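Possible regression after last week's pipeline update?

I re-ran a chain I had predicted before the update to compare outputs. Posting the input and the new output here so someone can diff against the archived version. Not blocking, just want to make sure nothing changed silently.
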Amino acid sequence: MCPMPGDDVTPSLIQAPLPSRHSGPGYVANPKAPDFEPGEPLRGAAARWLNLVPAEHRHDSREAAADALETLREHMRSAPDRPLGALWVAHRHLEDPEPAVRIAALVLASEALWWLGRFEDARLAAQAAADADPASAQARWRLAVALYRQGRFEEAGERLDDLLKLAGRFAPAWALRGQVRIWLDPGNPGAGRADFAAAAELPSGSGTWVVPYRMGGAEFKATVDAQVRIHDAETGGSSGQPVDAALLPDKSRVERGVDPDSRWHLEGPSPSGGDSDSQFGPLGGDFAAGARSRAPFGDRFVLYQRNIENLCRDKAALREEIRKSVAELFDAALESRAAIAIKGAPEQHAEGANVPGDEDR
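New output (post-update):
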């Protein structure tokens, strides 16, 4: 894992590459948030979170309650680049005398922990915030995003149902619920279609979210095979292995940390003799492997149809996205480390959206 900009991560904290998506900046506090006291499980977890933060990220300045929410908002915006600093700021506000500040701190902690790959801790923080303030759309969004990243799709869908009752104009929640419905019924080409359409029709989703174009399985595989032949002809190389097509990543792998939105997967013998999967990966796939003309025997190439389709509004865009995914996959397999010139569809993912605000209600 590469250190994040602005975070001098100590070697003991460098465990895996970063997640490729995030829940985004922003927080709108509820000034009438109910008072609450964190229970023992949360106190124990908070102590564990503090141990993640190196000394250079611990600053002792403390704001008055009137300024604390703005401080938390600022750190929410910078959390993707500086999650350790954000986690420290969140931690020291968990015992603030103002309930609204404590809830906002839990939301910020969930954001920071998500970026650090601590998805269960991110869920725990968001759950505590949602339990303390059921009217907090921000807490429910963070909870849904954490559950989705853990592969707990039914629970994520339930939380999104709740969220959309509070913030029905929040387009990313509709889009993410569409993705959840696909996971719950991957063989149904119409799964999630109404949710994607709702996201695309909202002003905040205009030009961002698409209603995915669906292709039959046989046509998708034929298109992949054609792009493999074109890639081999253009590069003078060969994979030596067929490229499989699957609807989605295996759910058990998502539960172990693989991004549920991965477009492709490459697995094969690793130096240690095991599977060369990684917990997180680059935006497109979940393994990045330099320059060979032929992939080693035993590699398995997989493209995930639904996740590729989810980015594409029409057949032309889908063909281009398949072309891009094939190029990325072979670049990883052949270790060419070549720049991928194929633009493909915009990488828009619901998990990358801002938390909902007042305008989304």
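Follow-up from reviewer: compared with the archived run. The mean pLDDT is 77. Marking as no regression found.
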